[in-house]
Amino acid sequence: MVPASHLAAFALAALIIIVIPGPNVLFAIGRALAHGRRTALLSVLGATVGSAVPLIAVALGLGVVLAASAVLLTIVKVVGAGYLIYLGVMAIRERKSLAGALRSPALEANPRRMFRQGVIVGATNPKTIVFFAAVLPQFADPATGALPLQLLTLGSVGLGIQILSDGTWAMIAGAARSWFVRSPRRLESVGATGGLMIIGVGASVALSGTN
User: Fold this and answer.
1) Long-range Cβ contacts of 135-144 (<8 Å, 24+ apart)
2) Rounded to an integer, what distance in angstroms lies between the CA atom of residue 87 and that of residue 11?
3) What are 20-40's pLDDT values in tens digits?
4) For residues 157-194, b (16+ Cβ closer than 10 Å) or e, as one string?
5) What pTM does this model have?
6) What is the pLDDT of residues 65-123, one digit of tens each?
7) Residue 110 and residue 128: Cα distance in Å, rounded?
């Protein structure tokens, strides 16, 4: 069982780290600008599910290996960055279809595809991997119970904070999008902007450190 004091301390640390926009947040904002709140929230849900992957890895002991290996962590970072850039390029290429989606539901973003993309972004987010691998274990106490269960419990709190924080960012961005939908040209512009944001996130992930 996780001590209440450790749980509260971890929740505070997670809140401080998660609310600062990172790849997951900026990806959700880009999706909200390009496709609206529903798609952005699906992306947030997918990213949260994806974030559970490094959490489970840490609980099973793999996170320590990943955090200690600069090569493996770099590979994960590059793969995630490349995928984000690819999604941004596709968003720009598909911007003209956004205006048609307002008139034809068949042209709307595929929910399953948006969810899957969110999962990949969340699972390869270096910020999430380092947080779970390096920060999360500091709040577990071996004397109070099985460490894997404690890590999963603490991590679940972090995932809850993540979905609330990222969802709020997505809702705010989605609300701002409503002004653009009044004009097809504006909508094309916001679709391109969303794509450029996603490309920018991918580039920053590729060029920055993991801290």
Assistant:
1) 135/13, 135/17, 136/10, 136/55, 136/58, 136/63, 137/58, 137/63, 137/64, 139/2, 139/6, 139/7, 139/9, 139/10, 139/13, 140/2, 140/6, 141/2, 141/3, 141/6, 144/1, 144/2, 144/3
2) 32
3) 667 788 788 878 877 788 888
4) bbbebbbebbbebbbebbeebeebeeeeeebbebbbbb
5) 0.70
6) 655 666 766 776 777 678 778 877 877 776 665 555 444 443 456 888 889 989 998 99
7) 26
Cβ contact 24:47 at 8 Å: yes
* 154: nearest Cα among 136, 129, 141, 166: 136
d(CA 118, CA 129): 15
